[in-house]
Amino acid sequence: MGTYIQNHPTTKASVHFKAFVESINQNLERAIGLLHDQELEELSEDSKQLEAQKFFDQKHRDLTRVSENFDPFEKSNSKTAEELREVQLIIEQLKWLLDISNKLQKIIDETMFQ
User: 67: Cβ–Cβ under 8 A, 6 or more apart, which residues?
Assistant: First the structure.
């Protein structure tokens, strides 16, 4: 993701992107807390992160639908194609990082000696 952002013009980080990042960061902070044997509160489902995932999934569907009707020789299609690549990469990476951070907490919790 970092390499893509450095080498391609991207849109400004949206509220939805930030919600994903906050969830990932929260999971990592909880994992650190588990390693330090801190008491942690149970977390409820993060509505901002779920809303963000729905937003990105819908955006991806919309861009895919538009790209299916592309004329490969029309210059204006390149912007939509680039936006589709950006959305695909970002959402896949955010979902992957969120999944890893969730699994990290669970593995630490299961392997810590009580």
Answer: 77, 80, 81, 84
> Would you call 13 helix, strand, or coil by DSSP?
coil
Are 101 and 20 in contact by the 8 Å Cβ rule? The answer is no
Mean pLDDT of the chain: 81
Write out the DSSP string of 39-59: --PPPPP-HHHHHHHHHHHHH
Domains in the chain: how many in total?
Answer: 1
| b/e sequence 39-68, b meaning 16+ C-beta within 10 Å | eeeeeeebeebeebbebbeebbeebeeeee
Its pTM surpasses 0.70: yes
Domain with 22 in it: 2-38+46-111
Cα 113 off chain centre by: 32
d(CA 104, CA 27): 8
Q: What integer is the mean pLDDT of 62-75?
A: 69
